[in-house]
Amino acid sequence: MSAVPDERGFRMSAACDLAEYRSELHAWLDAHHDELAPRYTPPGELDDHVAQMQRVKAILFDAGWMRYGWPERVGGLGGSPMMRTELGAALAGRGLADPGLFSLIEVLAPTLIDFAPPDLAADVVPRLLSGAELWCQGFSEPGTGSDLASLSCRATPRGDPATARTWVVNGQKVWTSLAQYSDRCVLLTRTGTIEARHRGITAFFVDMDTPGITVSPIEMINGEREFAEVFFDDVTVPADRMLGELNGGWAVAMSILPYERSSCFWQRIAYLYRRLQLLVESAPSDDDRTAEIVGDAFVHLHALRARSRVTQYRLAAGETLGAETSIDKVLVATGEQVTFDAARRLLPGVIETDDGSVGEMWRNEYLYSRAATIYGGTAEVQRNIIARRLLDLGSDE
Amino acid sequence: MDAAERSLLAVTVRDAVDRACADGNASVDGALAELGWLEMLEAEPRDAIAIVFDVLGAANATATALDDVVACALGVPPRPDLAVLLPPFGSWNRPVDGRGLATDRITTARRLLVACEAGIATVAPSATEMTPVHGVDPCAGLHLVRVDVDGADVTPLDDCAWDAAVALGRRAVAHQILGAARTMLGLARAHAIERVQFGRPVARFQAVRHRLAEALVAVESLDAALVAAADEPGPETAALAKAIAGRTARTVAAHCQQVLAGIGFTTDHPFHRYLKRTLALDGLLGSSDRVVIDVGHRLLAQRHVPTLIEL
Q1: Is the pTM above the cut of 0.80?
Q2: Residue A384 at interface with chain B, using a CB cutoff of 8 Å
Q3: Contacts of B188 in chain A (CB under 8 A)
Q4: Rounded distance between C-alpha atoms, residue A231 and residue A170, angstroms
Q5: Full residue range of the structural domain in which residue B171 is found
């Protein structure tokens, strides 16, 4: 599938093909609803969500759906990456997989495809897609939040860096999603000096069962343990697990941005539409105040969806996505918080005092939504990027 | 039209409108006519509306092209001497009792197109009472109108046709707001870079930068909403674009005025004209506040949240 690089018209030449794919996908999901539906009673806990996602991935991989949009050399069936986006959005929109967990595939698999030795990618990517494995991303550190280029978890070669057969990792990562469930980790390490900043970073693909790795889950504000601290104590990593070039880890980290800011966002948007749908179904009143709150959330989500759609057409047309996706990020974060603020306003007392499953779901997700302006680059960092790169306001120093 | 043709047309329209504005506002309609506006509207309505109304907004130009857009959507061939009765300020329903708004075209038009409860009629403006609206933006060229359609030939008009006319008109007005919002942001950006306080340009202060960033987010979300409204035309996507336009204008004006500070509070600087024009434009074919409530009521009535646009 290809798109016409037509900056204002945006309609893909093959848009009808994607529409056809979408309609076949939804028909198949309808037909297999019972098989795919969660086995737990909603809202469930993180263990349930992870198990559900892996089970659904296995079913979808066998049926081929998990393989569309991925290259054939890693077990895919080819086609536009937008097919992946449609699948993720369909699962989120139907509540079959948690969009935050499911969309991690989009920030992990492309890294292997683009930067791993071909044999390694061909071996491991199908395991991720089929639900046989789960991976995590070791980027952030206690001293490295918004300023990723300052990371200090060190990888040292055994011998000369050019010829070393193994590297030894020491240090700590934090906010590593699903680390305690993961089989592998895409890890950013310091291989140059701290002063070299982004030019002294190297990426590795590390097996999580390697001796010396300790995972310590962190309890989040909503009581779940999605994130973890990961400690590396003399962890040995084979040199052929290096992703990209020595000291070329920044390119690996940055390569994720286009996927995170397109496909992942579209999945998140589908989830937010589903939540607003739930709210519209359960709103106790239909007065002007209720209409204003619902309308306000819908306007936010529509603007966000419209923007994300334009971004995905640009990506499909072969454009390189960059700083302008900070606008998408600001809109996603705002849209998410507005949606859950609407829930709190329209369902009085539910988030605060309802101990049933409905209250548990809204409370959990409301609290999680507070992080939307923090993770993936804070709202402030996004505005700095917009000011510097898009408005060309010059340095702020 | 491909991207290159669109950019070329945008430059041509901008040059012509800027020249006309410099020459006194009266000739903007004439400049558009010379460029073949009506032919463009007929042949390429999507691009014609987007380009012309973006430019009108950016130049703070007063024109009457909205009459052509609404007439065209109502299935009546637009003509330079045909004015249209628009709903009253803030509303989008068919004018009741012949009361509504009109652009400046009503002062010279030979015919006035009126959509009323019974249908659609064309009357002579002599049957019309009209009062110029000074209000917040005397240069917007609006008139309060009351027209008597008794005795005129009325052709039935179904609700879908009226909704389609409102939708296309909303897209035009939203584009005009987009052009105005981009200009406000450009003015504030230029000021922030030039204005020195505490020994440095105020653009270096993060508080100022974040305001301008916030304004750009609003501008780009409106741009995207208008692409969506053109790709999936219909009353829903147009209503959302109009609601987003009103909010964008408010957000952009607030941040830009704060960044412009003292100078933005004067009539020496052009900012005030854009602020005033967007206040007036928000009320044409439904203000954002009322549209948001209406959209919310529709969702609640259907108990359904439509996605409206797909990949």
Answers
A1: yes
A2: yes
A3: none
A4: 8
A5: 160-302
